[in-house]
Amino acid sequence: TRTHTHASVSEMFAGSEDKYTWSPSSFRSCWFNTGPCQNGELPASSIALCLSCRLVCARRITRRPSLVPSPPDSPSTAAPEPSVSAERALVVVPTYNEAANIERLLTHVCRMDPAAESDEGLALPRSVTIDVLVVDDGSPDGTANLVRRVQAAFPDRVHLVERPGKLGLGTAYVRGFRYALAHGYDHVCEMDADFSHNPDDLLKLIAAIQNGADVAIGSRYVGGVRIMNWPLSRLVLSYGAGVYTRAITGLPVLDVTAGFKCFHRRVLEAIDFDRVTSNGYSFQIELTYRAWRQGFKIAEVPIVFTERTEGQSKMSKAIVREAAWKVWELRVRQLVGKL
C-alpha cells in the first residue's frame, strides 16, 4: 500500500485553514490512498491524490469567501442558465368539404400532450407546442364554420385561412408554409384532414426533426407496406409512382407521394416557392426533390396509412397525369441548372 501526494497542491494552499471534505465512497475506491483523515475532513496541506489511477480522492466542496475572495473582475455568483422555451410546430391542413372530419381532427391535435410518452415509448427530445392552420378553399359544406367553432375553444392554437375557391393542394400548402415562416414556427408539418394520417404520429415526425433530420416523411413503404383499406389498383399506382420517380430522378425516397411530412423551417426558407409549379399530388414529389437536391437530410418514418372513412377522395386522372410529367420536368430542369 502506498500514498501519493502532489507537492504543488500543498504549496498552493500552505498556511490556509480551509477544510476540504472528501467523499468516503470515492476515498475508499482508491486503494492506493492511505492518507490521514479525521471525522471525514482533510487539511489542505494533506490532500492526497492518486496519480497512478488519476482519481481525486479529496474533493473541495466549500471555501470561506472571507479567506479566499473572488477575483475582482469575476462575478461572485454564477450567472443563471438561460430559460429554454418550447419549440413551436405548425400543422398545415388543406381542406375542401371536410366537415365530416375537421372538428374531430382539430380537437384531437389540440388535446395531444407532446410531453407524454407514447404507447411505443417515444418521447420528444425537446418540448414543443403544436398549433394547426387550416387552409380552406371555400368549402360549400361549411368546413370553415366548424373550424371557427373549435377556434373558440382553442383560440391560440387553431388558425384559419379562407380562400375564395378550389385553388389546389400545392398552393394551399405554399400559403400555409409562408404563414408558418412569417409567424416564427420551428417545424412545419403537412397532414390530411380525413384521418388517413394518424394525428398521434405527428410526434414521430417532430422527433425525427429534433434528432437531426431536415425533412421527416411519414412513410407507407419503409420497412414494408403499411396501408389499410386500399384496393389493389390504388396500391399498385402508388407504389409504381415511387419506382417510376426514383428511376428518373434518383430521389432516394420510397414513399415519394407521401402527404404526411414535417420540415424544419430552414428547408422552407431555402426553397423558392415562386418556382414551385406543381399543384396536385406531384407537389409532394417536387418539394421533396428540391429539398434533396439542396442537400437536406431526409428521414422516412414508418406510419400506418388508413383510407378515409368519411368524405370523398380527391384523386383524379388529371392528378396522375400531372405527376407523370412533373418528374421529367424536374429532372430536365436540374440537368440544365434551372431547377
Spatial separation of the terminal alpha carbons: 74 Å
How many DSSP-defined strands? Answer: 13
Q: β content, as a range?
A: 15-25%
Summarize the amount of helix as a percent range: 25-40%
How many helices? The count is 10
Structural class: alpha/beta
The whole-angstrom Rg is: 30 Å
Could you give a short account of the major beta sheet? 7 strands, mixed
Overall geometric form: globular
Order of helices and strands: HEHEEEEHEHEHEHEEHEHHEEH
Unreliable stretches? 1-83
Spatial sequence of strands, sheet with the most strands: 7-6-5-8-11-9-12
For the residues shown, what is the average pLDDT?
80
Written description of the protein model:
The protein is of the alpha/beta class. Helices cover 33% and strands 16% of the residues. The protein has 10 helices and 13 strands. The strands form 4 sheets. The chain has a 7-stranded mixed sheet, sandwiched between helices.
Which helices and strands, and how do they pair?
Elements: H1 7-12, E1 19-21, H2 24-29, E2 41-43, E3 49-50, E4 55-56, E5 87-95, H3 102-111, E6 128-136, H4 143-153, E7 158-162, H5 169-182, E8 187-190, H6 202-210, E9 215-219, E10 227-228, H7 232-249, E11 261-264, H8 265-270, H9 282-293, E12 298-302, E13 305-306, H10 317-335
Parallel strand pairs: 5-6, 5-8, 6-7, 9-12, 10-13
Antiparallel strand pairs: 1-2, 3-4, 8-11, 9-11
Helix pairs in contact: 3-4, 7-10, 9-10
